[in-house]
Amino acid sequence: MSNKIYHTLSLFDKWVQENNNLVNKWKQQEGGGDTLSRDQSQTHLKWCTSEFETLLRKIQGVPPLADHTQLEVSVVYNACVCFTAQSQFTEAELLLKQATERALQMAGNFPVASDPPVLWRTVLKSVENTALNSCVLYLLCLQWAIWLATCQLKMIEEFQEELTSLVETLPDGVWDDRRSKARGKSFDISLLVMEPRRLVELLQICTSIAQGAERLSEGHSSEALSGLQIASSLPAPRILVAYTHFLSGSCLAHMSRPQMALQCYRKALETDFRCVCALYQSMLIYRQLGNTQAEIQALHLLHSTRMLPSATEPALACTHLLSPSSLLRSQSLSSLLSVPSALSVLHNLALKCVLHGRVSEGVEHYLDLLAAFHSEDHQVHAEVPPLPRLTELYLEAGTALLMAQRPADCMALCDEVISTTLELLPEKLILEELEQRNEIRDVSVEGEDRVAMLLWTGAAYLLQGHCQTHLKDWKQAVIHYTRCINLLMKVWFKKRGFQPQIPSADMIVKEGTYLSVLQKLKGLSLAGRGISFTQTDQLKEALRDLQLSLQAFPECVGAGLWCGEVLWRLGRRRMAAAHWEKTWTFSAQSSLESLPVYLQEPQSGPSLDSTELRHRIQELGPI
Amino acid sequence: MEGRCAVETLAEFGFSGTSCTPKVKSGFGIYVFLCMGSDEVYVFNTQERKLTAVLQFPGLVTDLVESPDKQLLYVSCRSGVYCVSLSFLLSRAQSSLANTSSCLAELKVSSEFLVVGEEGVLSLLLIDSVLLMLSQTDVSWVLSLYKTPKQTQSSSYEMLSSFTLPLVSAFVHEDELKTRMRRRPVLICVFHGQTASPPFSSTSSAEAASPVSHFHLKPVLFKRLFGIDTALIKSPVILCGLPDGRLCFLPLRLPGSRLRVLHSLEQPVVFIGASVVMKTGPEHAQCLVAVGELGRVLLIKMDKGGSEGECSRAGFTEGCVPGPVVCGCVDKRHLYYSTGSDLLALDLSKGSSGIEGQECGEETSAALQSPTSLNVCRVISLAQPTCSPAGEVQLLGLSIRGQLQRITLPVWRKDARMSKLPQGRCSARDLLSAIGDVYERASVLKTSIKSKNQTLRHLNQVLNISFLLLASTREEHFPIQEKPIRCHAMTKWSRLLQKDSLNLTCVLDNSSPYVLERGWTLTIAAFPLSCSPSAGGESSSTNFSFQFCNLHPGETLEVSLPLAAAGDTYFPVTINCSLTFSVTSLLGEEEVASFTGLQSGCISLPLNTLTVDWLHVLQVKSSTASHKNTTSQPNNITTADTIQAFVRSHRIWCSGRGDGGGGGASALKQEQYSACVRVSSELLRDTLVLKSSDLDPQEPMLAPHNLCISLLDWMLSDSLGGVKMGHRGDEIALSSPVVHAQGPNGDTVKLTAKEVNIGEESMAKESLSAIEVRVESSSVAAVCGLHHAVLHRVQTLLQRAPKRPASTKTVQSLGLRQALQRAECLLQQIQQSRISAAFGVGESTRQMTHSFLSVYRELRENPLLII
Fold it and tell me: What does the entry give for GO biological process (chain A) (predicted)?
């Protein structure tokens, strides 16, 4: 009986053993982490946390004794790490507060202040140069982690000094001395779930990144830059180093040094290819610089990386207990790191290609995009930024197809749009004054924008007219243009206090409103019909249409030139010359980017050679 | 009204009411799958008219869906979604048929068939190769999409995405929802009508009919409801009807789409479907129909042209049919629904078959008001109707009794009236069967009303008793003796097979004016205050329950139960008496199961609490015997006991020697522990005399000696707190103030009462006469227990003492202070030894025990007097 008594361990040893068992179990699980699903490891983590907490409650049941500080702090550390990994910060902070208060009691002081910063300062002061110091420093580490994860960067700045000294003192801390001293007795040391040294390193770089992002969003780019450059040389996981480079690049971009920014982005990508945001930001800089080819190249790369299977997993996911993603949660950082979805990138790419002369490539991308929508296993995600409406995508794709000399395919796409919308179009529509895009929309009960729908259908008819023009089937072209014009005539415009009327040319039209789109459509379709009439020698009709077109949309180049041509043919040569002269003064593409691609003047129709026209004017001679 | 349906019972399955709506589904041509809310799925072959197989799943089956092109059956149950292939099922069914003589193949579906381990899936839907599952979490509805593998063999079900819709507090009250059957959310898929060929019919021409939950909607309506983007890419749209009444939709392939609410029925959605409405017309459905549980019917169809250039728009027409609606289905023109007592048909084409009139909405709602009764009752689930070549519509229904029925509807004529029945004989048979049905229904109703009345009367009694008991527990001051229904008890030692055991006889006394009827149970729970170390530190309670039939006012019920065997020392034991009423006895199993609000269906009402302490369990020896040999064991103890006693005494002696302290002399003798309580004799005189004078008024004032005896007598015999010592009834009163007795663990104890005078050493002016009750025994446990019991008795004595002006005698203030100091000192000692014990430093366990023992003994030596 008495033998048994001597062999049973004292409670203290039992606690140490319990702690070590838990830590070992965790490490084992972490080692074989690949086989377990995320859910399973989450439940395991939860279990571990509760076990540590119960153990801690037992230990804290006895009055604070200096001999057992190491054990107690280890358990507090482990429990807090587990809590923080699960984002249960209030629980972790409570534990920390209790532990520091007990440390104060051990040091012979009694806690007075409940405010965390004050408490920490008192604790740090009172345990200075005592054996307790290293233990308290470990707790400070965790406080740091919590501040970081809850984005309390102000606090971290306040404690900057202590934290830097923490980084310096930790490697040769007293803890390790004890370890080496007590190496003989194995169960005397309590193990930790995460090496404090590694935690501090992680905290250091994550703090730099978070601070950098915060300063950058506040507009202090140069300050942020210096901090980030120091951080980039710290030992850390690759992806975090890549982030420091990326953020430096963003700072430089803010300081309008695009070339240096590009260098930084390149470095970030070289460090870790998963840093896709660097690629995206480079693309934006190229766009800003007007380097279209490079922009398209970057979009290409971006799209192919987004299509990789690994792209869906977050780059920060980590099998370790405290992953960087759980520490980096600030809003400003996540907005910097965000990258649009694969579909959105693909659309951008296609549009860029089409706008900048790489039509065949653009067409391919558009077709890929449309195929993606029709494919069965296409994943439905919330898109940020949202893609344009599918109808618009169809129309853009149709335009691209027409540009690529595939009028039949363009016709088919337009047919689809028309067949979808046709039955839903209203007989008459009244546009209110002061209506702006995204402001008040005429949304019917079923949630469709009826004006937009009408304009889409009009655009589809217009495109079909263009296709027929391209095929030189003038009769058909006139039919389609007429359909478009008829449709557009259904829209009435209502000024405040007046009766609804058909919009006339003398109205001031704001860019980007429905009214501007309407007028543009009207101008283009009338011009198209006028040009078609000229081809069939119906000059009177042609002149009427072309002049109406110029009324609706005065900057229409085609209408201007052809109007002159018709006048010339009708023998009114002076007027014709005046028309031509006036048209040449139009800035060729005044609003290329702001208007949808399908509302731009077709390049494929019958054209007039301007040198020949100038020649004619010269022949006409001065008056 | 005009026509009658031919109802043909195909098979009967036992049906037990459960928490989930049953489901009938026909699939793979000739098979019908039934799940009735248990963990089984029945596969019924309609051609051979027999049950092909029974699939048993590891949990409650919530929904099933079949994949016709791959011949797979997906079944969702509590632990996840399982996938069983039809060929496998049939081969297994055949082989098991060959092996066993039984005609039924029961197949256990194990976890190897588990394809998606998502828990709590309520509804399933399969669209092409995408499997959708709807489940409910605490805060939201979750719709998850999984991609099914191309090959049947591979088992990778990749999650595509998931959508959530926050829960809203249900329109129907929460409790009400709980009590009802849990309704499964309805999931259907709507295709754009222009899709050239439905994806299913292209593969297998024989089963060209698309699945029940897939509808092709008229393009205009589709566009109007779900937007032109959805129509442009011809994305299938999922419509889901939730138990909170919301109708939600989700375009499956539209980027950035989310679950959106289309409409709310404000009552649980029972059914969603689409109907062509027109008798001859395009294949696409013209009308979406949703039916709520309370009879609200929503029709969504295109309204033809409004005023001044308005284009056509979708019209939502709501109407009400007499509810409740249990299940429903649609065919090309009709909506069929069952109210449980009748099957009804609504002609949806009534409104729109006419000219495209402006008031078609009103017409439709008018049509809703005149459903046609089909005279089929008790249908709780319907499968999609089929149309035979002859134009007869056949419905497959499941009745509440578990009958699978084929209901053949009479042929509808062009004027929307029932056709005349072909033969008179047939009509007579049908009439007879209809009469039979009605008679059966009536008789069932009659008996149910009768039993409900009975139940109500019973419940009234139960309620009365409950109120009575609750009132008496609420008023704490209500003395036990005055409680209308109470328990009292008697302890008794008995000897069986040479083992002593203590029996407790409990008497339930019903002095209330109500009858305790069937369904009541007397529950007695005994909790030992402390417990043996071998029990692992868990305090073990023993429960006894006694059912009884009728206990009329004034009657008593006597039950007896074993409380402890000899050797058990865990006294005092608290006896909790309560009356339990089980609703099951009133309602029966299945009805109780539907009242999920009642936990376990029991009402428990506490009666009173009795305490059996050491004084109750003493076996007092007759005074003569104890005079003869006070030290030796009683005569009736067997040799085994003697040896045990010897061993025990020896052990104590050994430990006494090992003590090593100054107790060498006492160690030779058996160590005696003792404790005493001092009570002022004045108090005793007041209370005991008061009591005894009740019994015997002419008895003179008690002498001090008599006082001692009567104190002991009172302690041993009084029915304190309702418990009495049973064996003392025949014995004569005590003759000396010394009592020898045997405790429950076999130790002898001695109780002495003597008069002492206190106050000599104190500075008090006058001494105080008191009675000292001393407990002595060689067993620590016995001394502790008895001391506790004696104190407890004195406590009640004090409560009983008549109110007097405060005693003029000075309280021994000095003694009090000393006692307090001593107690503080002891407390410190205890804390010290506990901390050192915790860290295992310093003393050994035995030393510790000794220190605790000494502290305890000092605590017992309380010199204070109870006045």
Answer: interstrand cross-link repair
Asked if pLDDT for residue A546 goes beyond 50, the answer is yes
Q: Is the pLDDT of residue B198 over 70?
A: no
Distance of CA B613 to the CA centre of its chain: 35
CA distance B358 to B378: 39
CA separation for the pair B138, B140 (Å, rounded): 6
Highest mean pLDDT among B101-115, B421-435, B526-540: B101-115
- Which residues, 6 or more positions from A538, have their beta carbon under 8 angstroms from its beta carbon? none
Give the β-pairing of B121-127 and B130-136. Answer: antiparallel
Chain A residues close to B312, C-beta within 8 Å: 423-424
Measured between alpha carbons, how far is B133 from B110 in angstroms, rounded to an integer? 20
Give the tens place of pLDDT for each residue, B678-706. Answer: 777 777 776 665 554 444 444 444 455 67
B161 touches chain A (CB under 8 A): yes
Helices marked H in B403-510: 424-474
Are A426 and B309 in contact (CB < 8 Å)?
yes
Please tell me whether the overall predicted TM-score, pTM, comes out greater than 0.90 for this model.
no
Which range has the worst mean pLDDT, A569-578, B7-16, B527-536? B527-536
In tens, the pLDDT along A75-105 reads: 888 899 888 888 888 888 888 888 888 888 8
**Would the pLDDT of A51 be above 70?**
yes
Closest-CA residue of B relative to A11 is B839
Q: Does B642 touch chain A (CB under 8 A)?
A: no
Please report residues of B whose CB lies closer than 8 A to that of A389. Answer: 229
Q: B231 in contact with A at a CB cutoff of 8 Å?
A: yes
Q: Among A178, A176, A140, A182, which Cα is nearest to A161's?
A: A140
pLDDT in tens, B539-560: 567 788 888 777 787 778 888 8
User: Is residue B293 within 8 Å of residue B323, measured between CB atoms?
Assistant: yes
Measured between alpha carbons, how far is residue B829 from residues B660, B661, B837, B838, B840 in Å? 20, 18, 12, 14, 16
Q: How far does A116 lie from chain B, in Å, by closest CA? A: 31
Strand ranges, E, within B46-157: 50-56, 61-67, 72-77, 80-85, 106-108, 114-116, 121-127, 130-136, 140-147
The answer to whether the CB atoms of B233 and A373 lie below 8 A apart is yes
Token reading at A457: 């259908």
Cα B468 to Cα B607: distance, rounded to the nearest angstrom: 11
